[in-house]
Specification:
InterPro entries (chains A, B, C, D): Gfo-Idh-MocA_inositol_DH, Gfo/Idh/MocA-like_OxRdtase_C, Gfo/Idh/MocA-like_OxRdtase_N, MI/DCI_dehydrogenase, NAD(P)-bd_dom_sf
Shape of chain A: globular
Order of helices and strands of chain A: EHEHEHEHEHEHEHEEEEEEEHHHE
Catalytic activity (chains A, B, C, D): 1D-chiro-inositol + NAD(+) = scyllo-inosine + NADH + H(+); myo-inositol + NAD(+) = scyllo-inosose + NADH + H(+)
Structural class of chain A: alpha/beta
Distance between the termini of chain A: 29 Å
Strand order of the largest sheet of chain A: 12-11-7-10-9-8-15
CATH architecture of the largest domain in chain A: 3-Layer(aba) Sandwich
Strand content of chain A: 15-25%
Helix content of chain A: 25-40%
Oligomer: homotetramer
GO molecular function (chains A, B, C, D): inositol 2-dehydrogenase (NAD+) activity; nucleotide binding
Pfam families (chains A, B, C, D): GFO_IDH_MocA, GFO_IDH_MocA_C
Family (chains A, B, C, D): Belongs to the Gfo/Idh/MocA family.
CATH class of the largest domain in chain A: Alpha Beta
Number of strands of chain A: 15
Number of helices of chain A: 10
């Protein structure tokens, strides 16, 4: 039984606590912490756990084998570095940290520790559809991938959602999952801005088309459209030398009514990727016990940050921007 | 240029007159007839044709090479027999005649004439979808057909539509097209009556499931549901020894809206089979010039009548009813 | 933690032992039994459980809270009756028992015990697709169901598979899941025998079309085709007064290759319903702790046996056979 | 009966001659011309037409009411200018002329003539799918278009097909049809070059992604992949403010076989757009009689040339290139 401490008891924190308590095999939540006492207590009540108000104390509690971090992004780096110091496996919700520099500090700390400890919460890698596509690509049957056509469409966003958030909060998922899917790294980024939908506001250019080129020359286009109104619609088509592989939409009944044949499109990302979250955490629990990381690593978190920075710059300049890490990918992460 | 005389100037008559005038190559309408003077005149105005009030006179007019019959069903037999006597090609809208006996008289008259003159207006044989399925079956790639699952769904019918009309006006299309599709003849019929939809009335059992067995042992089920509300929905799936072939629905754009992915289902049989009517008549015109019939023959019209009679009997008895013709299929119609 | 004893250590038994050990939360296998010592030992090794050679002893072991029965069908009744006597929850793989009479004895024993103890392993009730359809039907949006069109297609069967097995081993799944889906009971059965596929043998009529009518007048057709060659293909379309609801096929990538657009059809029922087995057992474990049964009951097992008997009779007679239980559905099972 | 003269008796010329003779209503081919005597004679034999070896003489023949030009591209301008001079309607296969300058000369000549005489053979405007999408867009139900995602995939090309031909011979169809579809004009072009497929050769970068921006700010991406191997695959998805509209693929039977559900993808552009060619010519014939042009005009031909030039430049520079015409769109072409 893996004893898990959860840092950050907001919505996502409570979600993971419920998941670990009700659905996941081989784990139990033994401690929670939050700077807000009320939140921490409410979360602790779900799982009968100890309550901390200081994340460091939670990390050092001997009744905590491994740590889940669901605090606000700016607080991630400190907790993760503590956990590495304590030699405890740590699952950090995305982002790994809010700056590429902080991500790099985490990478270096993990490298120095010599132990595989950090996993980032890019749950799409556990989605059945992406895995079916990956399996097809890895089979070699379709030859080398050449292009990816993707969409990340969201029903609507609030007025606090601004242009750069289309990268940091939305495309960030594609940034991680796509390079994993095709086993490649990014080289450059460009962003194209079509005319704006009437449903957006002055601080948000919506939609956007983000273009990424990988080191092998694969060209990716991601339509990011966060006020598309009709649903949460994630698509991914991989054009290969010997065929095209498209991720399926989730299966829903086929309805005949009102002169139309129709199926449901999801409207909520937590519904769309519900199973992915469960699989992700179950997988992390099993790996934490073995001391391995098979999900997105600290390096992947760093790559995502560097790529996001280039995309945000490309949003501003309209140019093709290079994507460059400050160090080569270490052997440790191969 | 085939000079065509059209007998019967109601809706269907005018439709065919417009078709022959505007769309069909190699034909012109030179004469029309109707017992109602007004109707005949209105129809004649479309195509600058001579007006008759007597179908026999029209048939004998030397400026009429071939005849299209769109008069009410009870009047078909007489006109067709006249046309055969005159040795002129004749296209009769369905039904060939209102009784199996009258159909048989027509068959015998055509046989005696020794010329292939009569075609019945079962337009589905010219539908692209059915032809694609037939091509697949005829390719031999899928082995022998074993079962057909079909639906004939219609939005709604009036209160004058009664239980036997589900056979005579609706399933009659499947009766003709299905035995052509699988190149087989019917042996027996059964009708199953599910509970009635709330949208029907006391004179109409709706829906019905009609079961046909062919001489080769192929089993066909046709769901006939004429108040299905949602559209005009024709399906045909052929289960073979080496695979299943399903007729495609007509192609319409795929729409994402309101949390649904949808395509249009037709609501009108004349839209669904519009192209079939054009192809049917173009084909008949070309064949009439050559003196051949490649579409549904008088024999097919007779078969349809015999099969329909068995189905209506099966509606009443609930039993399996044999489908028997009064003569073997003559060599002439092979 | 529910302590589970597993009776019968063949393939299905080992499957459930692995499931309970690796995937299910809140349960552990504490004892196994099999008449074959080797099998029992091998199974026990998976889960570090006690080994019995006598199912009664296992049932009475105080370290066994609940029992899973995966022994051959003929041995089910005895074990289930023992479990009822011991007041322990029991999950029996299908069939509940091999005769309707034995099923009825179990029903009566459970009734007398006054406790809800028995669940039958009809796992399709836990399939996502069927549940999506049920949710749609239960929403009332589509009005009353009138007809169900279903297929149960299987790649191929061995020469030991005979005509009645198309009911007992194959259609049995539809028998249970369909009446649950539409919340109705069966009234009569008929079986239609199309010409046989070349891939069958003299003891097996394949395919068959099984027709069931419910007390509310809903008409069901199930195509059972166990040598269809192309895959394991389960379909279920419900035609309602206000629309048609069709169960989706499992989602697989959409491939463009070789002049075709294609998706995978499953070939193995354990792949098709893998998630259903997991959900079924997880659900049973949780209910066993609470002392309730929300899955298929002993009554459902009895109904399935009575319905199967009528279908086998109908296979032989070609007639419509009544489906009659020896008692009314007791209040206890409502 | 429109008397048509056909200039150029190669494959496309013979195709149109057969079409005009066998399928089109209200036209007949009265004269053909080709610099190769053999070709002209063979073509004339199809339709019993007069033979010319000089296109000017054909145009001036009083037995020629209208002209179809299917000669090599470089010869178009001269014939079209002759036809304009003679005041005869002229249908020119694409391209209108091989340079933007020549196209502009034709535009100016037509303007001076004051008569609508020239139509260019962009047949996709007559495709049912594109028209269904246009109808949806024009209905206003989906709000303003924001982005178009398109593919133009072709099985394979010969070694004589070079990088610029991806524009001139392939994307040229999208260039015309897309601005018509969204009723807008192009502003700039960019071309992205992914890594090359192993099936290409040194003179051809394949695939390419062509990006077009319109004056209203609509962003278009067209994947041009001419050695995709699997088929001729034309896709067009229009993302609007209130929904997404995707052109349907042509309807083919749905097949279950070999553990897959599949439908055919076309492999030949003449099969994919067969009906479009027929509709295009029928429509042109009817318009020629009335003295109007409702299809692609000389101005559209000029726009296509200017856009193609910008795309070819963008292929070379890798930059965003402006698309500028030498004159404003004249009132005459509104």
């Amino acid at each position: 039984m893996l004893k898990v401490g959860v840092i950050g008891c907001g919505g996502m924190g409570k979600d993971h606590i419920k998941r670990l308590t009700d659905k996941i095999q081989g784990a139990e939540v033994t401690a929670v912490s939050d700077v807000f006492e009320e939140g921490a207590k409410a979360a602790a009540a779900i799982c009968q756990a100890k309550v901390y108000h200081n994340s460091q104390e939670l990390i050092l509690d001997p009744e905590v084998d491994a740590v889940v971090i669901t605090s606000p992004g700016f607080a991630h780096a400190e907790s993760i570095l503590e956990a590495i110091k304590a030699g405890k496996p740590v699952f950090s919700e995305k982002p790994l940290a809010t700056t590429a520099d902080d991500c790099l500090r985490i990478v270096k700390a993990e490298l120095e520790s010599g132990k595989h400890l950090v996993q980032v919460g890019f749950m799409r890698r556990y989605d059945k559809g992406y895995n079916q596509v990956k399996e097809a690509l890895d089979s070699g049957e379709y030859g080398a991938p050449l292009m990816l056509h993707c969409t990340h469409r969201n029903r609507e966003v609030g007025t606090n959602y601004t242009t750069p958030m289309a990268v940091h909060d939305t495309a960030i998922h594609e940034i991680d999952v796509l390079h994993w899917l095709i086993d490649d790294e990014y080289e450059s980024a460009q962003v194209i801005m079509p005319g704006c939908t009437k449903y957006s506001h002055s601080k948000l250019k919506d939609p956007q088309i983000m273009l990424l080129r990988t080191k092998k020359g694969i060209c990716i286009d991601v339509e990011v459209f966060v006020n598309c109104k009709f649903g949460y619609d994630i698509n991914c088509e991989v054009v290969c030398e010997d065929g095209v592989v498209k991720m399926p939409a989730p299966a829903y009944p086929v309805i005949r009514r009102n002169a139309a044949l129709s199926t449901t499109i999801d409207t909520d990302c937590f519904v769309r990727f519900r199973d992915s979250y469960d699989t992700e955490i179950q997988n992390w629990v099993e790996n934490a016990k073995k001391g391995v990381v098979t999900g997105p690593t600290a390096w992947d978190g760093y790559l995502a940050a560097v790529t996001a920075d280039a995309l945000v710059k490309a949003q501003e300049t309209g140019n093709v921007e290079l994507i460059k890490t400050d160090m080569e990918k270490p052997e440790f992460y191969q």
